[in-house]
Amino acid sequence: MRLKGKVAIVTGAGAGIGRGIAERFGREGASVVIAEVDPKAGESTMKAIQETGGEAIFVPTDVSNEAQVQGMVDQTLTRYGRVDVLCNNAAVLFFKEEAPAHELTNETWDRTMAVNLRGYWLTSKYVIPAMLRQRAGSIIHVASPTGLFGFTRLTAYSASKGGVIGLMRAMAADYAPEHIRVNAIIPGTIDTPMNAVELADPVARARYAEIAPARRLGTPEDMAGIALFLASEDSDYCVGGIFTVDGGLTAV
Fold it and tell me: What does pTM read for this prediction?
């Protein structure tokens, strides 16, 4: 087991990429803290890990709420005494509300930034002191190709994910001397509930699969493999990296 004895927090672990990563961490021996805003989804992931013999707790958490984030980290430290891995994954994408910049509402912009960027910063802010005491840790930010390239009608989401990459690089530079490594994962089109509206159309689904050289959609399990590598000691010299899991989408 590559994470035996480690404690890992995964935000947005109730479904999709976050759940896939949380379950894989649990199978690899980590004690998993599921930080999730949806109680039903969070409980479901916790039970799935426990049913396979893993250790997990669910802590209801809105990552944009500082008090809730601080409480979640405090609860983790009270129970386990340490945090070895933080996977920042919780995000929102308001497909129907997204628009070009001059048409975008303040509400859509603010809520997207609050979860997708402020949430990553807040969870990092409260986890890092524990990692500094340990002089060890791994922080993984789930980013997006929209943070690297231009996509139409995804103004708020793209800006938030570009910010995630900038945040990752700044954190990587600051904390590498303290043996805390910070990296980002860039998923392609992953078949998850977040993308369910877009992928419900068979024509759109086929198009998204076709544009990746691998000629298929990604799965949460595809993301879990690279997350496991970055969480484990195998990635000890990986700092400030951007790891694509997109079937070749950004290579062409």
Answer: 0.95
